[in-house]
Design brief:
413 residues, alpha+beta, Immunoglobulin-like, Aminopeptidase, eight-stranded mixed beta sheet, 9 helices, binds zinc ion
């Protein structure tokens, strides 16, 4: 009788284990009110080539990572038409372009941008010459009935004309290797896996000493390829956290940061307007994880939480849009830090001269990362948006101050 009881108990225990393991191994899906179909869709891959207008001695190329140029045609003796298409449609109005141009003889030359129906010019051109980026002079930028033409001085040295400064996977990798150098006891460079086209999904696992039980801050960026100003804020934010100040040391006594600096490497290097190589907006995939980028990042996070018996406290996803804005969740009660957002914004206004926080609060109905942090982890989730044209000095100030104030609040938490 006693033996039978033990046997039954053992069977019960092993069943429970199998059940628990099974449910834990599968990364938990998160339900949103408005589902979005994020199954892979076809994309048009731009043909990499050098275009030439022979009788004018003018050339253009998209043969580099982050380029986007789908056609180049002569309009008249001083003007070329630059044809730009998205990777697929429907798509957000984030008409991204990037190409190099040069000429046999030095001369001023005009480029008129042509987009598919329903899309128009958005980004003010950035020019790169001799490794220096600048914004095009307003006197060289002409807009008529939403059609944009620019004037650029061409020469034998190629000039890059780009919607935003180029920060390809190579640039991003150079950056994080550099900031991690000499800080091996704090920053571990790991990989969450590979994109559908085999590009790395890097993650910086940042903690001091024992990783067990330390609450986690997750930092994401580059889901949307052209959103480079948001990535700059991310750089300043992360650099401030790891710089080794007293505050930073105190912060890492208690906390751990998982930083994903390149969430959509295929889209970034392919010069996409918004989607990954699966033709999908990855920031709508935080429910079903159909796209390998999100699936593997979620798996990496979930595994870390399980292994070290810890939780996400805060998740911030860096993007760009027309102007600076913080998208927050309305639900705060019962989350990891119900007062964090109010405290953080108050401190930003106190510490940045003449700065007013622009907050747009709502509960994510579509599967975006901000909602995933809330519904999936009961954590504070924030989409941190920098304006397309916010000057670098201002981005630096906001990035740095927001990192410092976050650390201060968490150190007192
Ligand atoms: Zn975005």
């Amino acid at each position: 009788m006693k033996y039978k009881f033990i046997q039954t108990a053992l069977i019960f225990i092993s069943f429970t284990c199998v059940f628990l393991l099974g449910s834990c191994r599968n990364t938990k899906k998160v339900v949103f009110k408005t589902p979005v179909n994020t199954k892979t869709k076809p994309i048009d891959v731009q043909i990499k080539q050098i275009y030439s207008i022979d009788d004018l001695g003018v050339y253009a190329s998209n043969k580099f990572d982050g380029a986007r140029l789908n056609g180049f045609e002569k309009k008249n003796d001083s003007t070329a038409i630059v044809i730009i298409n998205p990777e697929n449609q429907p798509i957000n109005k984030s008409a991204y372009y990037s190409f190099k141009a040069w000429s046999d003889l030095s001369k001023p030359f005009y480029f008129t941008f042509k987009y598919p129906k329903g899309h128009e010019h958005r980004y003010v051109p950035k020019l790169k010459l001799n490794d220096e980026w600048s914004v095009i002079d307003s006197t060289d930028y002409f807009k008529q009935d939403s059609i944009v033409t620019i004037r650029v001085n061409l020469s034998k040295d190629p000039i890059t004309i780009s919607a935003q400064e180029i920060q390809s996977t190579k640039h991003v990798s150079d950056w994080y290797q550099k900031i991690a150098k000499g800080k091996e006891d704090l920053i571990r460079i790991k990989s969450a896996g590979k994109s559908p086209l085999g590009r790395n999904l890097p993650v910086l696992d940042i903690y001091k000493g024992d990783s067990k039980g330390k609450d986690i801050v997750v930092l994401l960026t580059r889901q949307h390829p052209p959103e480079v100003t948001g990535y700059y804020a991310y750089q300043y934010f992360l650099e401030t956290i790891i710089e080794g100040s007293e505050l930073s040391k105190q912060f890492f006594e208690k906390y751990r940061v998982l930083a994903f600096p390149m969430m959509n490497p295929d889209g970034v290097d392919m010069g996409h307007w918004r989607h990954n190589s699966g033709g999908v907006d990855t920031n709508r995939d935080w429910s079903m994880y159909h796209q390998p980028e999100i699936k593997q990042v979620v798996k990496f996070i979930s595994k870390t939480l399980r292994k070290d018996k810890t939780r996400i406290l805060l998740g911030i996803d860096f993007h760009s849009t027309w102007h600076d804005v913080f998208y927050t969740n309305k639900i705060r009660e019962g989350t990891t830090m119900p007062n964090f957002i109010n405290d953080w914004f108050t401190r930003l206004e106190e510490n940045i001269p003449n700065y007013e926080v622009n907050e747009a609060s709502g509960n994510s109905t579509k599967p975006v990362s901000k909602g995933w942090f809330l519904y999936g982890h009961n954590a504070v989730g924030i989409t941190y948006e920098i304006g397309d044209q916010t000057p670098k000095d201002q981005i630096k100030l906001i990035g740095k101050t927001s990192a410092e104030e976050m650390m201060k609040i968490l150190c007192n938490h």
